[in-house]
């Protein structure tokens, strides 16, 4: 009637007569190596000390009589949602720097959106021909790591690179210019003279716009400060070691990803692709980054001047 083996029927009937049920009973399979208490200990330890190693955790448990492998240790936090990852690199920040960032965030968090929409955000970035945006993972079989299709060719010093200065506002991307050689204060001033006012005009920031720049020495040198004073621009005060507070960093990331997809073969193509992809960045992307700036400041306040996740 059921079209299943007679032996299966017999096994089910015998189990029901002996156990009173045909459900899978508890206690079957391999026993867990760690008690719930040990699992909770590992979770607390990893959350409190993210840099602790699996071997150190294994020794801790061994000292209290629980012998397990390092692999079991690694698997347990993973099952609790704690995964081993390469730590994000952030600028080294002193207590003074953290205090400065916190003060900046607190003094600007209540600025109206209209103010942020009138800010021209600026920065420089380096593009490498074979940069870190290239794919770092491949699917391969064991002992096949050095097959050509599974390797990532590298070239000393990135195989050639260019430095770019760029700007953007809520209304979209502004001018993008290549920096020739090593930029000093004089070249920086020339770049600003050639690009800032034109970008402000193109983006229609109005008369009461604000200029943002980082605290690089060429930005804050005596000659640059005097030059900016002559220009009469409204300068946004800026805390040191704060690239995470500049939303243009997000656009640089977008730009590098887009260029990596196109795989430029030389520096000339690298520069051409950069200008092309910079112009393609959607206005909505720019607007979203600026409209969420208050949230960025609130995040800095929450972590008391440390790095935020934007």
Automatic annotation (TrEMBL):
* An example Gene Ontology biological process: DNA transposition
One of the entry's Gene Ontology molecular-function terms is: DNA binding
Q: Which residues cross the membrane?
A: none
Tc1-like transposase DDE domain ranges (all copies): 119-270
Region described as Disordered: spans on this chain: 67-100
Tell me which Gene3D superfamilies the record gives: Ribonuclease H-like superfamily/Ribonuclease H (3.30.420.10)
Q: Which domain of life is it from?
A: Eukaryota
Comp. bias regions, Basic residues = 85-100
The UniProt record lists the Transposase Tc1-like domain at: 40-110
PANTHER family per the UniProt record, alphabetical: SI:DKEY-77F5.3 (PTHR23022:SF135), TRANSPOSABLE ELEMENT-RELATED (PTHR23022)
Question: What is the protein named?
Answer: Transposase
Q: Which organism is it from?
A: Leptobrachium leishanense (Leishan spiny toad)
Give the lineage.
Eukaryota, Metazoa, Chordata, Craniata, Vertebrata
